[in-house]
């Protein structure tokens, strides 16, 4: 919280108010606004006149659906009050608001105590590290004398300390020695000061509240405004304004539209100053490629309920709505602010949206996307195969609200089909995933370590890759690609969770790598890792509290056992039994109606989202989904490699045989009992007849010179002409290749007419690749060149082709292209600023479609380019083999041409010479 001991003359805080449904949150908000002079009379939900519940749907339902704000002043404090929905179906709206709060007020119904959703809210407040004040409401419902009320208050406080935190202390009671001692025990330094002086300083209390070491509690009745003054005085006294930086920063937490249809971006300024006409930048998350948008702020509005005030600037700490921004999204960070974390509370049921016959599904999808922008918890999903729209929702109440919103906004009456459970997937143990993407003129390889996390951790990303291996910019790009997509598992195609994905290795090429290549390699690495791992199917569960009459306990416990629930022993009180536990959502759906039925209306079931657990009927669910991960064209598991001038697909289980980087971590997954649980298939070394597949041994042999070829060539060339200057790739070479409906398959090129055959040899590449010439070049480069020319002259005499030997001379100042005849071959010295590969590419491009052209080089990238121009490739090692073979055959011909005469024993005799003897 920064320096909390010094306040400004008027401090500014963003205060959120949260509660379980029916705890009296809206009533407390009204009471606070009344005390702050915003409203003359306290509004009530049942009378439909609450100041902040200004939407018709909220008035009809009597619940808060959308988060709203109001600004009021108490003493030296300017409060932006953010009212959040209390119903569990709108938890996502509430959670987004948490990310811009300085402090929170948790309202608890004194009659009900801590309920399931209250514990969920407490966990969220802990996750976002928000300091909390507690207001225990509806204390007026307790009858009796003051002593009895005090006993009830102490009982409630003990319950809070047990259920939430031992640091929950009654700040509204008497500050006697016992209270001060309990307060001092919350912080070691404060305790030392208290033992010395017998006092606890106000500044220390402020600091402890800000650091979540103490949680002030106040008891009262919001409806009768009992205890509200003391509560507000406590908030004013024990809060401190945040300290912000000078550079502009802001966090977007909500998107909405006003009555005129203007798009509103609700944000909190977390640094610097936001001004009208200020130019803001951000990334368009809906674009296929990373797009940077720049838009001006038209208006800055400070809302209080339905009313707003327009201002010219908003300082740090201000919560406001902005017009003029069309690409922002909830959770986005602007300026120096980073994006927020993924919400913890997620929908657990998916419903098909049933449209009327005359309604066009694609048009409605666009409209619903607009609604999803305002209400991200809708999670609109387009099912491509069935052309259906599905929505992931929290529950029945949200369905009714959504139907009303669609009718009001778009004039269309829709229905929702029967909901299906939203499953998730995780892994049992660590595994390494490999992704490679190398179609023609593209290159990227990514290695990821996938590790399981504890339940509720979500998906986390990190990097542990040396910058010597992969540049930091590429690493950041890979992390961006990991975060931009919801990755799906291989069991049912459900989203993955509770996994940490770490970048451990990667490779790029300076000429043929671009961002899209790493996107493909990254996605494939995740999928390949999931295929190698032992996956686990997860299902959502409810944390429930079941209250039933004593005579129904047996029936209830039998039901819970049949539902696969884990529950505690019933607690008996006043002929009623309470059972707390956890059960799968799939088995507990609709149980509320059964409870009301068999208890004749005396029973009550309260459920809250309890996270994800291992699926109790995984095999049945997986079989029902019938998901084939290897035929999911939008999420391929294999990788793309290059050979013979074309990309070809390698199945996921064979990728380790073809990869360019060695595996660094874990090749297989260990199951929980320590047995090997690898899903790798038997790896085939044989290829298809058409040449589109090659064995791993052959491929690695072909790639042996791939990465060192250029580097070694540079070394020898630098000794002759100086440092090599890289040629920038052309626009054509940077064309993007998208693989969507099908992967690239290699098809052999049609044979050309054998009218004339050319062989182009990259001179320096061959010199450095052949050991004898390499050693000779260290003594004298001219001798190595002459020796190569002599060798190729002999070879040309045997091969009878047009042989062109090309040497780099582009660093020789003023050098013009020089072509000379050396016996029966042509020797080319390139001109200044032209490399040998440039000359070869130019030549192959000109004649490669007409004649048989072969290029001898071990530059792997040059080979790829040559293939694309219609030429053939011959590695340095391959040329050496051909030269040696030609020399051997010429020797045989010479031997065969000698006279067949009698010699000593052991030498050749004519066939019938023995007869003559």
UniProtKB/TrEMBL annotation:
Top-level taxonomy: Bacteria, Bacillati, Bacillota, Clostridia, Lachnospirales
State what protein this is by name.
Answer: GTP-binding protein
In terms of domain of life, where is this protein from? Answer: Bacteria
Q: Could you tell me which Pfam families the record lists for this protein?
A: EF-G_D2, EFG_C, EFG_III, EFG_IV, GTP_EFTU, NYN_YacP
Q: What InterPro entries does the entry give?
A: EF-G-like_DII, EFG_II, EFG_III/V, EFG_V-like, G_TR_CS, P-loop_NTPase, Ribosomal_Su5_D2-typ_SF, Ribsml_uS5_D2-typ_fold_subgr
Q: Which UniProt keywords apply?
A: Antibiotic resistance, GTP-binding, Nucleotide-binding, Protein biosynthesis
The protein's role, per its UniProt record? Abolishes the inhibitory effect of tetracyclin on protein synthesis by a non-covalent modification of the ribosomes.
Q: Where is the Tr-type G domain?
A: 10-243
Where is region (Disordered) located?
668-690
Q: Note the PROSITE patterns from the entry.
A: G_TR_1, G_TR_2
């Amino acid at each position: 919280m920064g320096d909390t001991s010094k306040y400004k003359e008027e401090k500014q805080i963003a205060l959120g108010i949260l509660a379980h449904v029916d705890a009296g949150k809206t009533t407390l908000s009204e009471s606070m606004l009344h005390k702050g002079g915003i409203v003359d009379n306290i509004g009530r939900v049942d009378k439909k006149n609450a100041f902040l519940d200004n939407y018709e749907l909220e008035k009809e339902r009597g619940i808060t659906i959308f988060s709203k704000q109001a600004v009021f002043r108490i003493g030296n404090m300017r409060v932006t009050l953010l009212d959040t929905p209390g119903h569990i179906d709108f938890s996502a709206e509430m959670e987004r608001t948490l990310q811009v709060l300085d402090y929170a007020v948790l309202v608890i119904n004194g009659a009900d105590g801590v309920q399931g959703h209250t514990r969920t809210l407490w966990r969220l407040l802990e996750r976002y590290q928000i300091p909390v004040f507690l207001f225990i409401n509806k204390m007026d419902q307790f009858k009796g004398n003051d002593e009895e009320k005090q006993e009830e208050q102490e009982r409630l406080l003990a319950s809070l300390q047990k259920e939430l935190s031992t640091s929950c202390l009654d700040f509204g009671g008497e500050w006697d020695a016992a209270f001060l001692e309990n307060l001092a025990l919350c912080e070691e330094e404060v305790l030392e000061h208290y033992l010395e002086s017998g006092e606890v300083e106000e500044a220390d209390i402020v600091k402890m509240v800000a650091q979540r070491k103490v949680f002030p509690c106040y008891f009262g009745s919001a409806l009768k405004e009992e205890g509200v003054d003391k509560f507000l005085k406590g908030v004013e006294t024990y809060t401190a304004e945040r300290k912000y930086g000078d550079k502009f920063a802001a966090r977007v937490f909500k998107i909405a539209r006003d009555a005129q249809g203007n798009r509103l971006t609700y944000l909190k300024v977390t640094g610097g100053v936001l001004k009208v006409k200020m130019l803001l930048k951000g990334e368009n998350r809906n674009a296929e490629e990373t797009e940077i948008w720049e838009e001006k702020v038209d208006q800055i509005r400070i809302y209080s309920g339905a009313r707003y005030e327009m201002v010219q600037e908003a300082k740090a700490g201000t919560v406001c709505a902005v017009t003029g921004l069309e690409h922002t999204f909830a959770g986005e960070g602007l300026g120096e602010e980073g994006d927020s974390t993924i919400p913890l509370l997620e929908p657990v049921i998916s419903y098909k949206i049933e449209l009327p016959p005359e309604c066009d599904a694609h048009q409605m999808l666009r409209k619903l996307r607009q609604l999803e922008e305002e209400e991200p918890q809708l999670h609109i999903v387009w099912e491509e195969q069935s052309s259906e729209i599905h929505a992931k929702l929290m529950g029945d109440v949200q369905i009714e609200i959504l139907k009303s919103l669609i009718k009001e906004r778009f004039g269309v009456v829709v229905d929702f089909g029967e909901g299906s459970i939203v499953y998730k997937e995780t892994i049992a143990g660590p595994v390494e995933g490999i992704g490679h993407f190398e179609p023609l003129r593209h290159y990227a390889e990514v290695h990821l370590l996938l590790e399981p996390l504890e339940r509720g951790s979500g998906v986390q990303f990190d990097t542990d890759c040396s910058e010597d291996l992969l540049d930091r910019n590429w690493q950041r790009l890979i992390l961006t690609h990991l975060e931009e997509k919801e990755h799906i598992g291989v069991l049912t195609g459900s989203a993955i969770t509770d996994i940490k994905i770490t970048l451990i290795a990667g490779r790029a090429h300076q000429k043929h790598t671009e961002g899209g290549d790493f996107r493909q390699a990254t996605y494939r690495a995740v999928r390949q890792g999931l295929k190698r791992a032992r996956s686990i199917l997860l299902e959502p569960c409810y944390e429930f509290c079941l209250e039933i009459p004593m005579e129904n306990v047996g029936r209830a416990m039998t039901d819970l056992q049949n539902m696969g629930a884990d529950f505690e022993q019933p607690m008996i009180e006043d002929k009623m039994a309470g059972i707390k536990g956890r059960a799968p959502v799939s088995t507990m759906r609709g149980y509320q109606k059964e409870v009301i039925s068999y208890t004749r209306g005396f029973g009550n079931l309260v459920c809250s989202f309890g996270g994800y657990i291992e699926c109790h009927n995984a095999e049945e669910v997986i079989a029902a989904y019938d998901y084939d991960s290897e035929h999911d064209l939008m999420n391929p598991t294999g990788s793309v490699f290059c050979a013979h001038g074309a990309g070809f697909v390698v199945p996921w289980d064979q990728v380790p045989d073809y990869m360019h980087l060695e595996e660094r971590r874990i090749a297989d997954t260990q199951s929980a009992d320590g047995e090997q649980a690898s899903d790798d298939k038997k790896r085939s070394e044989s290829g298809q007849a058409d040449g589109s597949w090659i064995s791993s041994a052959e491929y690695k042999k072909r790639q042996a010179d791939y990465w060192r070829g250029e580097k070694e060539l540079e070394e020898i060339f630098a000794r002759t002409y100086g440092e090599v200057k890289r040629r920038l790739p052309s626009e054509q070479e940077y064309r993007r290749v998208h693989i969507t409906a099908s992967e690239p398959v290699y098809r052999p090129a049609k044979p050309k007419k054998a009218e004339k055959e050319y062989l182009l040899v990259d001179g320096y590449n061959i010199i450095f690749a052949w050991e004898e010439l390499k050693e000779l070049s260290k003594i004298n480069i001219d001798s190595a060149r002459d020796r190569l020319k002599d060798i190729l002259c002999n070879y040309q005499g045997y091969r009878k082709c047009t042989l062109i030997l090309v040497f780099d001379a582009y660093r020789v100042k003023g050098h013009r292209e020089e072509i000379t005849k050396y016996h029966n071959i042509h020797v080319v010295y390139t001109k200044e600023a032209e490399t040998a590969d440039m000359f070869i590419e130019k030549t192959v491009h000109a004649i490669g479609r007409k004649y048989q052209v072969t290029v001898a080089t071990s530059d792997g990238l040059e080979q790829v380019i040559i293939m694309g121009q219609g030429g053939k490739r011959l590695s340095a090692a391959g040329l050496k083999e051909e030269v040696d073979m030609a020399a051997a055959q010429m020797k045989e011909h010479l031997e065969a041409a000698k006279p067949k005469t009698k010699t000593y024993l052991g030498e050749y005799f004519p066939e019938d010479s023995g007869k003559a003897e």
